Amino acid sequence: METRRTNNITDKGWLSLDNAAKIYPAVINRELTSVFRISCTLNSVIKVGTLQEAIKKVTGRFPYFNTTLRRGFFWYFLEYGEDVLPKLSGEEDQELTAFPAGSVTHALYRILAKGSRISVEFLHILSDGGGAMEFFRTLLVCYFRMCGEDIPYSNGIIDPDSKVENEETEDSFKKYYNSYLPAPDKYSLSWHIPDLLSKPLQVSVTEFEVEVRKLKDISKSLGEFVCMVAALEFIENLLIAGHNTIRLVRRRETTGQREVLFDFNGFDTFHCRVFQKHLKGGNYENI
What we know:
The protein has 287 residues and is α+β, with helices and mostly antiparallel strands. It has helices spanning 9-12, 24-27, 48-59, 129-146, 172-176, 212-222, 226-242, 269-277, and strands spanning 14-16, 35-41, 67-71, 76-80, 88-90, 109-114, 117-123, 247-251, 258-263, 283-286.
């Protein structure tokens, strides 16, 4: 009798890490947590009891998120547990804190509430921003409906009463990767932010407000998405700030110490790259 393969985690009990998640167990620690956050600020104070009811309903629709990270003989995997559910809590003093390592009871995502703001934090092993956004939008709509709002489950918002599709837990890399495709073009080295990492590493949060209508008008005039324009503006400011601090240093091969050779005050990144390219006889780097 032929056995049909299933991606239903409630039947299978576990899921292997997809191709994009395999790197994270090797790099995660208390400082580099690989946790990301999505937030939404409402027009009114959150009704905690109603939000807890919405969480209970929605988490049942996303069973593949109700998992813990386990170490196998050769690889890591996600183990499903009916009692592995996120708890609603207040916002932490330190954002994006690490999840308990090796815990069999703590889910790899959390839901936070403070005043009128709802946030979700996900470990990147569990999902990318797209999957987290689907969960978050479903949670918000479910909460609004429980508050009496007439909002349909449509336009990509998942109905909590719908069935889980196998495609939701498939590894798309295995499905779409083609080994016969040509390798991508090689690009020049990436520009690094010219600053040293703080010791110990610390998470800092920068918040700013912008008029949505103006940002949308600018994005439309450029023919780009809003998120693309915002990202480009952020990168441009990093470049501007970096022009005054880019230095070229050489690491001595014998002692490992860094020797400052030139300060590129006022140079742009292109000139720094060209100048560095013509220097010989040492191991050079930008800081």
